[in-house]
Amino acid sequence: xxxxxxxxxxxxxxxxxxxxxxxxxxxxxxxxxxxxxxxxxxxxxxxxxxxxxxxxxxxxxxxxxxxxxxxxxxxxxxxxxxxxxxxxxxxxxxxxxxxxxxxxxxxxxxxxxxxxxxxxxxxxxxxxxxxxxxxxxxxxxxxxxxxxxxxxxxxxxxxxxxxxxxxxxxxxxxxxxxxxxxxxxxxxxxxxxxxx
Amino acid sequence: xxxxxxxxxxxxxxxxxxxxxxxxxxxxxxxxxxxxxxxxxxxxxxxxxxxxxxxxxxxxxxxxxxxxxxxxxxxxxxxxxxxxxxxxxxxxxxxxxxxxxxxxxxxxxxxxxxxxxxxxxxxxxxxxxxxxxxxxxxxxxxxxxxxxxxxxxxxxxxxxxxxxxxxxxxxxxxxxxxxxxxxxxxxxxxxxxxxxxxxxxxxxxxxxxxxxxxxxxxxxxxxxxxxxxxxxxxxxxxxxxxxxxxxxxxxxxxxxxxxxxxxxxxxxxxxxxxxxxxxxxxxxxxxxxxxxxxxxxxxxxxxxxxxxxxxxxxxxxxxxxxxxxxxxxxxxxxxxxxxxxxxxxxxxxxxxxxxxxxxxxxxxxxxxxxxxxxxxxxxxxxxxxxxxxxxxxxxxxxxxxxxxxxxxxxxxxxxxxxxxxxxxxxxxxxxxxxxxxxxxxxxxxxxxxxxxxxxxxxxxxxxxxxxxxxxxxxxxxxxxxxxxxxxxxxxxxxxxxxxxxxxxxxxxxxxxxxxxxxxxxxxxxxxxxxxxxxxxxxxxxxxxxxxxxxxxxxxxxxxxxxxxxxxxxxxxxxxxxxxxxxxxxxxxxxxxxxxx
Lengths: 196, 596
Ligand code: SF4
Ligand code: SF4
Ligand code: SF4
Prior knowledge:
The structure holds two protein chains of two kinds. By secondary structure, chain A is of the alpha/beta class. Chain A has helices spanning 19-32, 80-86, 106-109, 119-126, 135-141, 148-159, 167-174, 180-195; strands at 6-14, 36-41, 51-59, 72-77, 90-98, 129-132. In chain A, helix 1 runs parallel beside helix 6, helix 5 packs across helix 6 (148-159) and helix 6 (148-159) packs across helix 8. Chain B is of the alpha/beta class. Chain B has 21 helices and 22 strands. The longest helix of chain B has 22 residues, at 194-215. At the A-B interface, helix 1, strand 2, helix 2, strand 5 and helix 3 of A face strand 8, helix 11, helix 14 and strand 20 of B. One iron/sulfur cluster binds next to loops of chain B.
């Protein structure tokens, strides 16, 4: 844990994209690596489609479970517009991992709001460390749109240099048995993408 | 045992099991729901949903009187419903330990207010315990059961969203033997007639003095001396974690876990030993008021916000002003704005059909809403109702609302809307009065066979209970009929049949006086229901579509206008419910095959 005592990771996306499962696997891996870990998620609405976030903090000793504006070392956006919404949570010098996939919220569908343009370009003008990972595209290529989250998990494990844990065993343990192989593949593809 | 990552709710369940809790009841409510769901997985704990929080607490208090350790769990507003038994149990005391979990929601993540239920403890004259992380949830709930029996008091176990829904490391303990207390008839304690209550009140006041003595030395209240005694912080619950994060090992802390009665001696000792005293707490100035009453000046609510959820950043900005660390490159250009993304009714949700039919009758109806998934129908484009206040208030408040409309010569029919779970919770008395008083109200029960919003918990209408046993499903329509409302004023419809639902609504509008519509179709997120939709979707025929956008007015997330075309481009999201087909005036939407 070079220099600083703790790391803050914020995963944001749209309800139904699997951010919570991703954070569960990630936190368990961090526990296995011997860190103190706190993970905070706000859920309660069963419906799909709202903006969601889960927060993970790890280090030697963690107190507050939640991450405030300007405090995230790593912001992982599972959807493009969510990267914009949560951008203020990223600390100066932090890394933004962004999947450029678009999911239109209902106000956009009904024409009350518009979906922003040039999101990646605008963010890259502002964020020092921007990594675009086309996770949804990779998951589609694998024939399994739902494994977008495992592509991103693979990417962020390699970005954070956390290869020490038995990640593949954890993925296998947490995903449904019939989707295991494709999710493991998704994880590998994500790790490889981030290394480039 | 090896440490495991548990949420506060999961840790409460673990701790209650370890404490030998034998009976537990709850009504689902965010952020408390997972407590009972998890406790039900342990051996030897009888766990059930009550039809509301009052019933749940009364199941638990009966078990306590009978000699079992018992727990009731609810969200903060649920404790308002259960306040009646709580306040009287304060007088009666317990036999087996009784713990009442209140899960508060500062920040209103999924609630209609952010009331601070710590204020209930002095009102109810019951002991209160507040954990600040998952391990404390486990150990403190064990302590709460012991405290309850040692001091003959129910214990209010007060949590907040961030404690309930954050995961941190817990070391599971060895379960205690669930030994039952003997049951002996004791009317002088448990039959709260006025003569008994007067005596009990005196005893309660004495008990509270003894409890306060104990609070001064209880391990739940501890001083953590820091490197300096310059700054001393009195705090409890999640606020302790935020304070530690911001002030670190430099400051000293009085961390309170047994927070009613508050330990006067301990507070005095601490306050006298530090140069500057801060009180850091979320919500009301509960600790601060006590500190000031004891004659100490402190800094509290003038710097710590009264409204909303607390976090380390807020404390940092309040106490250690410095430029905000947010932002990236210097002179960065402004970013585009993210569009709002409110939660919406799922694609294929049965409630959407009900609101689509109601929306076509907007001129002749006013909607009154309630708490549940269908509450999302207030937003555009559905705009299905005008107000919603609290659980079960739609039918009853509609009685008064319709009266007021009539008085001002407004002829619109009031449609009061609630779900099956809410109907069982507290809608039934409103229905009884609407029928009995002849109110000009159409009471609509949106029966999706489950408590959907909190994550699909069984209702009294379900044939299965929380523990998986087969039980008698209570019949909503039979209950309606039992009010004596004539059959011609009761309609049961499939909300995804727009014509039939609309016809029932027209009848209700035409009829003077009470009318009931039961809109019946299960939630699409239920596993077996979702299965039946697999491989079904609808598609738009671009040749026939005339871009009239009628189909977008039902607010289904699966149908969109993209690059100038109306499309259903995600066959996984679309359930093929056929609602958009029914609203398209040009027959441009049709069912897709199952072979894509
Ligand atoms: S969870 Fe069920 S009831 Fe709630 S919005 Fe989704 S489909 Fe409708
Ligand atoms: S059939 Fe139409 S209304 Fe139903 S889920 Fe599909 S797009 Fe939505
Ligand atoms: S309602 Fe029918 S015709 Fe109108 S926009 Fe929708 S699909 Fe096209």
